[in-house]
Amino acid sequence: MAISNNIRPGRHFLQIPGPTNVPDRVLRAMDYPTIDHRGPDFAELGLRVLDRIKLIFKTSEPVIIFPASEQELGKPHL
Q: For a designed S-S bond to 13, which of 5, 19, 29, 43 qualifies (C-beta 3.0 to 4.6 A apart)?
């Protein structure tokens, strides 16, 4: 049996759990290129996030973002 890969013209929808209408502003934002996670723009963004996330947690202490699963947090290498 042949598999059809026809692409339908028209508006695309998010299919999870879907279909879900995606606002135009979100579709336009998705057209922007991603930021290189090793570049200076990402470093600047990260510093701004770390500074402002304190407001969310209502603290003046440093907030640490650990980029791994919760299983990694318990490993002895820390």
A: 19
